[in-house]
Structure formats: structure tokens, C-alpha cells
Amino acid sequence: MAVQVGAQQAYPTQPIRLVVPFAPGGTVDILARLIAQQIASPLGQSVIVENKPGAGSALGSDFVAKAPADGYTLLMASTSSMVINPNLQKLPYQLSNFAPVTLVASVPHVIVVNPKVPAKNLKEFLAYAKQAGKVNYATAGTGTPHHLSGALLAHMGGVSMTDVPYKGTGPALVDVISGQVEIMSVDLPPALPHIASGKVRALGVAAKKRAPQAPDIPTIAEAGLPGFEVTGWYGVVAPAGVPQPVIDKLAVAISQAMGSAEMKEKLAQLGATPEGISSKDFGDFMGKESTKWSNVIKTANIKIE
């Protein structure tokens, strides 16, 4: 027993792998790389970010679920991987296959369209969509918040929209910018520079309040669709069975990093709000989120073919 305790106290003794279940360029990837930089020094080991995209985050998530429970393989978790996908389809993993470490940050979604779409605001877009009969919306993959958000927008707006799945936020945004797809519900951080440069037009932020980083963009409620709110969240989880002292050490390092002035400034620039809670509170939070998204899926009658 003394040897086991000593081993836990010594953790980590080798580099840590932080798996991102999406392609590079999206919010999950951006946050993972920021965290990896910040916690390497206090943990005394390098933290390597590894992208494993595919199957709407299920591929990378399942990889971590089946990894050894030693604290050296972690998952940059998100709303989709933890609470949406398990409510949409049968997966090789469940929420119970993971040990919650801590909530990292939350980010509102923003509805963006290609500038050539003849709509300056949400009401005009819904009118355009009704007249067109059908429009396409880009997603970061089947079962992602982008997918559910677009389906919910179509449901609440009374229009027909077809989802076009991509392997991550980055590739999806590229096709909205090029005009291959008309519209996307996307987390604010990767969209901000493209909104600022005019490559996409923002119709509204899907949050209760306007984003401080983009105060000129109205909320979706202000734009004419009250009750439409989509806020993504991001956290770190480990395979179930990782010793609690290891979980606690990781949670402290990440929470302290999220509370630093440098990280707060970087997250503010990204449009993200830093969090940082105990592993137990994060577990409780994910349980409530699972119930919420299950209700959204039923309300919008969302199914994966």
C-alpha cells in the first residue's frame, strides 16, 4: 500500500497525452493547447495534445475511455462527447466510463452565414429559408452541438434545413466562408476573427446576454427567437478508475491555470468564460447537462440516420 501511495504522490513521472477528439482549429483544440502549455510547468511534465477526429468525437473519446487508468491519457471533453452523443446513439462508451477532472470553460454559440446570403439579420434569414424551401447548414460532425443547434433553429424557426457534417469546426467554417454552405451555428472563439474580417456575417449569439467580445451582435432572443440558447462547455476527463489523488492533482493544476490573469485574458480574447470546479461538481454538472440535451433532442425530434 505504501508503494501505491508513493506512486500516486509522484505523479506524473512521464509526459501526459491530452486527446482532442476533433480536427485542429476548433474551440476544443484551442483550449486544449492553452491548457497543455499552462499545466506542464506545475506538473513537471510535458503535456502533448493529440488530435483524434472522427464520428462526431466518438472515435477519440472511446480511445480515452479504453486507455489505462493511470492519468497519462486524458480527454478534452465537450458537450457533444459527454452528453449529446450518448443521448443520440448507441456508443462503445458511456459517461460512466470517465472520471471527471474539472470544467475548463464555457462558450456561447453564434449563428453565422456566408455574406452572399441575402439576409442581414435572423428574421430576414428565416424568411429567406422559407422562400428557398431548403438550405444547408454546416456542422462539426453528426451529434455535435453544431448539429443539434442547427436542427433546433430549423425547428423553432419553422424552416427546412439539411445538416452537412464535417470532421471538426475548422473545415466546416471554411466551407461557410467559401459559400459551399449557407449557415452554421458555431462556438464563438473560432468565428470571431472571420466575423471581424467580414468573411461571415453574424445573425445572433445564442446566449442570455451579448458577448463582451462582440457587443454589437444581438442575442438570438433579441433577433426574434426567444428561448434559443446554446452554450458549449469544455472540460477534462480521465478514464474511470484513475486514483482520486491523481484526479485531484490534475484538477488543481488546471483550475489554477484557468484562474490566472494570463489565461483569463486569453480566454476573453477567444470569447470563452473560464471555469474550474471540483471533480465532483463537474460530474454533477455533466449529469444535469445530459438531461437538458436529451430534452432538446426529443423536442426537435433529432435522429441520426
From TrEMBL:
Cross-referenced InterPro entries: BUG (IPR005064), Bug_dom1 (IPR042100)
Top-level division of the source organism's lineage: Bacteria
Similarity section: Belongs to the UPF0065 (bug) family.
Protein name: Tripartite tricarboxylate transporter substrate binding protein
Annotated organism of origin: Ramlibacter aurantiacus
